[in-house]
């Protein structure tokens, strides 16, 4: 099997030959675009190769070349910034999930260090590189993973849900991180095809397909957050959403119970009292039956449907702007559904496609536009609710509506009924796109000719992927002869993760251990018997003419180029590079004429026409490139703004952690009620906090409320026992057991809120105070009830002392 065939086989593409000559001899070209004796293949051929070279000519410095260079740089920056944002978002999610524990300082030391490490920046001087031998082994391994996506596809199905985000970072933003480079994008989509195919094969329940929170669904959501998806959402939804949120006071709530409560609140504010026929605490049915509520809701229904219809029309009109990858995934969902469920209705197929396109892609941006940087700031209360209702309406339109939890949404059924056919037509049209296998074949072929194929990857991405591969190698590569198993055996066991500060980004050279690098792509195509020497010569001649004309402004604007004159102008130019090209192309014209491929008598008509067509294409391409640059500059700004937003969140966490450390230091040096805190060698008086309490509770009262679960106090003395509870500082409580007639307490216990919460989390039921046993949950409830009512709220004050507004959590007695 030659190198081309093995590439195709690695990702399941049928081996269809490239264009071949019927007899291997000279081929005379005709004006119809065919070569005498055969029809040009639809597969990518050397023609496409030289056309691609003309588009991205590094030797030419015309306006197109400069614009393309700018575009490539911009795409690279977007890809790199998208990865940074993904990492930051993951850190913020992690800290959000842990912050409730940190509030009360409930973590062990190693856990605290782990959380704090998420706020450390990578030290560019720190870390160690793998040695050259190990780098080569990893280069072989990651080239195999990148070019044979089936391995990554299988791994994504094997990992736990807790491991998927780290793996997705490597897959989506590193291994296939160049989001605008066709080869990497198409390889990533090939991986999706494998993952989706397996998902359809292993899922028995049609209704749960692609809807559960699985690694596969997480993958699909993450894919939509890449640059092209963000660009689409920005261009299509931003204006529509911003025009809506300008109406801050537009209340379109249609939940009858909420509308009823808002109505009676307004009446009470206006009149100072409520009529008897408008009681509080009514049921949803009673609220829905109220005639005033109905009259309020009716015009809102009409307006909601008008707004939703405008969103829908905008989305339908944008079908040509939907990124190719999004549409291709929709196409795979349709194809796999038809294959697995041949009797499936069109409605059911559209429901699955809509589940991806709306549920995973469009609706999250509508519900939280600030998270997608579609708006400045956070929408107000009413617009936010309206956007949520719009998203629900679109989801009900794309899926089978379910009103189990929100019966009131039935009022919007006319929107679904009127637009169902429209949305199904749109979802099916999303699937109407071509495949990419032909271009991927050439991209893969060209990748073997590159000597600088690099992967920018962090050490921990390398080590984490390595560890997962080793963990699942018996499933991924059961045969000892498989390439993946051989490479894993070579590289050995996975190193442990390095500390975050040492997690450097390295340049990993990628190359195949089994494929011979192609030194000359054209010669390789010839050796594969795909094209003849004359094909190569013809295309190279045409390519050089395009280069010369692009470098000579005075001839570039002419519609019908005179090839002989252009070659002579170049050969006599002052520029040495042009002279070499002019002399070379004159010799090439002579060789082609001797071979009978072109004819001077007709003015090299076919080549003249093809050069003219190429130049027209490049002229149109220049405008497209400039337009794409303008669009992507806006996307890049949006991504950078989002990065700044995420960094500000992390800065808030840093400030919070600093406050926690200061509070811990204060407690450890002076203890509760301490009058001094050591700062270096000096003593400094802390700001005086107001002591809350003491509040008195009798033994009988606490026993009745179930707070005392067991008492060692003799029955005849319990009536003389009482408890004083005070809070000398936020989060700290002193419970003192007293006997009537005695000034001093019999017993005092210093309680930390975090200790109580930790006991609650560990399901510890009782707290031993020597004379009595207290129920942990109920004493927490008592403390909350007693102190949260005070103006200087012991819970809230401590929270506000340590936390920025964006991460304050209400205390409710349990987590």
Biggest sheet record = 4 strands, antiparallel
Strand order in the sheet with the most strands: 5-7-8-9
Overall form: globular
Radius of gyration: 35 Å
Overall SS class: alpha+beta
| Strand percentage | 5-15%
Q: Bin the helical content.
A: 55-70%
Coiled coil: 57-84
GO biological process, one term: negative regulation of Ras protein signal transduction
Organism: Diversispora epigaea
GO molecular function: GTPase activator activity
Report what the structure shows.
The chain is α+β, with helices and mostly antiparallel strands. Among the domains are: 1-128 and 525-546 and 605-688, no CATH class; 225-316 and 355-430, Orthogonal Bundle (GTPase Activation - p120GAP, domain 1), CATH 1.10.506; 689-807, no CATH class. 58% of the residues lie in helices and 7% in strands. It has 31 helices and eleven strands. A four-stranded antiparallel beta sheet has the order 5-7-8-9. A three-stranded antiparallel beta sheet has the order 6-11-10. Strand 3 and strand 4 (682-684) form a beta hairpin. Helix 6 (150-158) crosses helix 8 (182-202) and helix 15 (346-367) runs antiparallel to helix 16 (381-398). It is globular and about 125 Å long. The two termini are 61 Å apart.
């Amino acid at each position: 099997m030659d190198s081309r065939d093995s590439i195709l086989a690695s990702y399941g593409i049928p081996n269809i030959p490239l264009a071949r000559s019927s007899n291997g001899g000279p081929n005379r070209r005709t004006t119809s675009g065919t070569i005498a004796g055969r029809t040009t293949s639809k597969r990518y051929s050397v023609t496409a190769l030289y056309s691609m070279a003309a588009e991205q000519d590094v030797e030419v410095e015309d306006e197109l070349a400069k614009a393309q260079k700018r575009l490539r740089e911009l795409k690279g920056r977007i890809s790199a910034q998208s990865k940074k944002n993904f990492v930051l978002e993951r850190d913020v999610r992690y800290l959000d999930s842990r912050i409730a524990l940190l509030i009360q300082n409930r973590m062990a030391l190693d856990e605290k260090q782990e959380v704090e490490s998420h706020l450390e920046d990578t030290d560019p001087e720190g870390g160690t590189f793998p040695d050259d031998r190990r780098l080569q082994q990893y280069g072989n391994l990651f080239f195999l993973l990148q070019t044979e996506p089936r391995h990554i596809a299988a791994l994504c199905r094997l990992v736990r849900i807790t491991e998927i985000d780290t793996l997705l970072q490597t897959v989506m933003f590193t291994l296939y991180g160049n989001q605008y480079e066709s080869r990497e994008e198409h390889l990533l989509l090939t991986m999706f095809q494998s993952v989706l195919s397996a998902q359809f094969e292993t899922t028995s329940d049609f209704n749960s397909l692609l809807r559960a929170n699985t690694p596969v669904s997480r993958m699909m959501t993450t894919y939509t957050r890449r640059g092209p998806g963000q660009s689409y959402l920005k261009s299509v939804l931003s204006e529509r959403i911003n025009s809506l949120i300008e109406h801050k006071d537009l209340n379109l709530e249609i939940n009858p119970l909420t509308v009823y409560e808002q109505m009676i609140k307004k009446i009470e504010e206006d009149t100072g009292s409520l009529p008897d026929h408008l009681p509080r605490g009514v049921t949803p049915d009673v609220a829905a039956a109220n005639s005033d509520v109905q009259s309020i809701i009716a015009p809102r229904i009409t307006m909601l449907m008008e707004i939703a219809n405008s969103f829908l029309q905008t989305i339908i009109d944008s079908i040509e702007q939907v990124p190719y990858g999004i549409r291709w995934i929709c196409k795979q969902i349709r194809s796999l559904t038809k294959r697995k469920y041949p009797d499936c209705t069109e409605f059911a197929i559209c429901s699955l496609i809509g589940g991806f396109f709306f549920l995973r892609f469009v609706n999250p941006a509508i519900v939280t536009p600030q998270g997608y940087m579609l708006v400045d700031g956070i929408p107000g209360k009413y617009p936010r609710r309206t956007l949520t209702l719009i998203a629900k309406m679109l989801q009900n339109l794309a899926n089978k509506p379910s009103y189990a939890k929100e019966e009131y949404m039935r009022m919007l059924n006319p929107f679904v009924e009127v637009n169902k056919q429209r949305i199904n037509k749109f979802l099916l049209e999303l699937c109407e796109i071509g495949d990419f296998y032909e271009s991927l074949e050439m991209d893969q072929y060209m990748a073997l000719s590159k000597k600088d194929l690099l992967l920018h990857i962090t050490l921990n991405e390398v080590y984490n992927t390595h560890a997962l591969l080793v963990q699942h190698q018996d499933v991924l590569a059961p045969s000892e002869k498989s390439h993946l198993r051989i490479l894993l055996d070579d590289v050995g066991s996975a190193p442990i993760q390095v500390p975050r500060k040492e997690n450097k980004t390295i340049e990993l050279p990628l190359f195949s251990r089994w494929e011979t690098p192609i030194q000359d792509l054209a010669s390789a195509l010839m050796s594969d018997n795909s094209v003849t020497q004359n094909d190569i010569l013809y295309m190279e001649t045409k390519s050089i003419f395009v280069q010369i004309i692009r470098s000579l402004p005075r001839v570039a604007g002419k519609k019908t180029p005179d090839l002989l004159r252009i070659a002579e102008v170049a050969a006599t130019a002052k520029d040495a590079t042009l002279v070499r090209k002019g002399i070379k192309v004159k010799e090439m014209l002579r060789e082609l004429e001797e071979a009978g491929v072109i004819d001077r008598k007709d003015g090299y008509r076919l080549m003249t026409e093809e050069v003219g067509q190429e130049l027209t294409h490049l002229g149109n391409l220049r405008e497209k490139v400039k337009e794409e640059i303008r669009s992507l500059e806006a996307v890049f700004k949006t991504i950078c703004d989002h990065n700044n937003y995420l960094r500000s969140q992390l800065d808030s966490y840093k400030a919070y952690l600093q406050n926690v450390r200061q509070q811990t230091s204060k407690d450890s040096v002076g203890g509760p009620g301490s009058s001094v805190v050591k700062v270096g060698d000096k003593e400094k008086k802390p700001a005086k906090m107001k002591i809350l309490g003491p509040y008195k509770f009798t033994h009988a009262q606490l026993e009745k409320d179930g707070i005392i679960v067991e008492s060692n106090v003799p029955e005849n003395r319990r009536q003389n026992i009482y408890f004083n509870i005070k809070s000398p500082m936020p989060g700290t409580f002193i419970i003192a057991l007293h006997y009537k007639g005695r000034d001093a307490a019999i017993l005092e216990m210093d309680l930390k809120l975090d200790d109580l919460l930790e006991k609650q989390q560990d399901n510890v039921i009782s707290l031993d105070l020597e004379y009595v046993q207290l129920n942990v949950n109920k004493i927490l409830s008592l403390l909350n009830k007693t102190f949260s009512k005070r103006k200087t709220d012991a819970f809230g004050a401590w929270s506000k002392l340590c936390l920025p507004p964006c991460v304050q959590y209400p205390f409710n007695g349990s987590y």
